[in-house]
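Fill in residues.
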C-alpha cells in the first residue's frame, strides 16, 4: 500500500506540531526527506495561511515549496506555490459582514451565559477570517498550557456553546477546532471538502492519499476526512506523527 501513496496530508495543531507552535527541527528534516522521496505534502487546517506559514513554511527551505499544498480555513481556500510565492484561490465565498456581526453577538451572549467569556484574552476571541469565523476562548495568542487547562475544565461548556450556535445558525457549519476554538463557516466547508478538492484537482485515487490527524472523535475536526475514503492515520501527538512517518521512508 505504501508504494502507491503520493500525498501525505496533515492536520496542523497537535499533529504536525503543538498548538500555534513551529514544527521542530526534527520534523522539518523529516518532511524534507519525504519530499525528496517523491511525496507531496498537504496541510489542512481551520487556521489561516499566515499561521501555517509561521508554524511550517518558514521552517522549510524554499526549494521544497512547490511540493506543498495548503488548505486553510478547512478548505475554503487553497494555496499553491507559483512564481516564487504562494498564490491563493478562494473555493468558497466569504461570510457577509451582517452575518458576522450576528455570530459575534451570539457568541458573546452564550459565553456570558455559560460563564466562559474571557475578559482578558491574549489576542482576539472572535476572529473574522473571511470564509470562516473562529472563536478562541482565551484569545488567538494564548499559550498552549493555558489552552490545555481551559479545555480540560470547559469541554462540556464548549459543546454546549457549539449546540446553541448551531441552533441559531442552522445554515452554517459549527465545528470544534483546536483545544479552545470553534470554527463557523459555510456548510460545505470541512476537511472532507478539502481532501475531495485535492483529489479532484490532482486526479488522485483515495488510496494515494494518507491523512494524519489527532481528533477523530464524534465532534472532532478530523472526522469528516473519513468520509473521503483516503487512508487514515490517527495520531496522539506530533511525536507520534513523526514515528508513523518514518515508515514512509522505508
Amino acid at each position: 500500500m505504501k508504494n502507491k501513496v503520493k500525498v501525505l496530508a496533515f492536520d496542523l495543531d497537535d499533529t504536525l506540531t503543538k498548538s500555534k507552535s513551529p514544527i521542530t527541527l526534527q520534523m522539518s528534516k523529516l518532511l524534507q526527506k519525504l519530499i525528496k522521496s517523491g511525496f507531496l505534502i498537504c496541510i489542512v487546517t481551520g487556521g489561516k495561511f499566515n499561521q501555517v506559514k509561521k508554524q511550517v513554511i518558514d521552517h522549510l527551505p524554499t526549494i521544497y515549496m512547490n511540493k506543498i499544498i495548503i488548505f486553510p480555513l478547512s478548505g475554503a481556500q487553497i494555496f499553491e506555490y507559483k512564481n516564487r510565492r504562494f498564490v491563493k484561490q478562494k473555493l468558497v465565498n466569504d461570510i457577509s459582514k451582517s452575518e458576522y456581526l450576528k455570530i459575534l453577538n451570539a457568541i458573546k451572549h452564550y459565553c456570558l451565559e455559560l460563564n466562559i467569556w474571557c475578559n482578558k484574552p491574549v489576542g482576539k476571541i472572535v476572529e473574522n477570517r473571511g470564509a470562516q469565523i473562529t472563536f478562541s476562548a482565551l484569545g488567538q495568542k494564548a499559550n498552549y498550557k493555558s489552552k490545555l487547562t481551559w479545555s480540560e475544565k470547559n469541554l462540556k461548556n464548549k459543546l454546549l456553546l457549539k449546540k446553541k450556535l448551531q441552533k441559531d445558525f442552522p445554515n452554517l457549519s459549527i465545528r470544534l477546532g483546536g483545544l479552545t476554538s470553534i470554527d463557523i463557516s459555510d456548510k460545505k466547508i470541512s476537511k472532507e471538502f478539502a481532501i475531495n478538492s485535492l483529489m479532484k484537482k490532482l486526479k488522485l485515487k483515495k488510496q494515494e492519499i494518507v491523512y494524519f490527524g489527532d481528533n477523530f472523535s464524534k465532534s472532532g475536526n478530523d472526522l469528516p476526512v473519513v468520509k473521503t475514503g483516503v487512508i487514515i492515520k490517527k495520531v496522539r501527538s506530533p511525536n507520534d506523527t513523526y514515528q508513523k512517518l518514518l515508515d514512509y521512508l522505508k
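The chain has a mean pLDDT of 94.
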